[in-house]
Amino acid sequence: MLRVRKQVYCNGAYTGKNITAAVLDTGVSRHPDLVGRIVGFSDFVNGRVGLYDDDSHGTHVDG
Are 41 and 51 in contact (CB under 8 A)? Predict the structure, then answer.
């Protein structure tokens, strides 16, 4: 682990605070575990507005 931290210039403790990640997948549905954690959503295929996930794969990955 120390070797990886040197490679990515991480000298301090990793806390996960102030980290934002983008997930490109089938979508994301409203799920209790994700409440307050989703800061944006875009549908590049159907242009729909609002959270949805046709097959739950994206919600699984986001979780």
Answer: yes
* Amino acid (1-letter code) at residue 57: H
| Residues 34 and 62 sit within 8 Å (Cβ to Cβ) | yes
Which pTM value belongs to this model?
A: 0.69
- Residue 10 clears pLDDT 80, i.e. is over it: no
Residues 6+ apart with CB under 8 A from 53: 26, 27, 28, 29, 59
CA-based Rg of the chain, rounded to a whole angstrom? 15
Residue position matching structure tokens 């102030």: 18
Instruction: Provide the β-strand partners of residue 53.
Output: 27
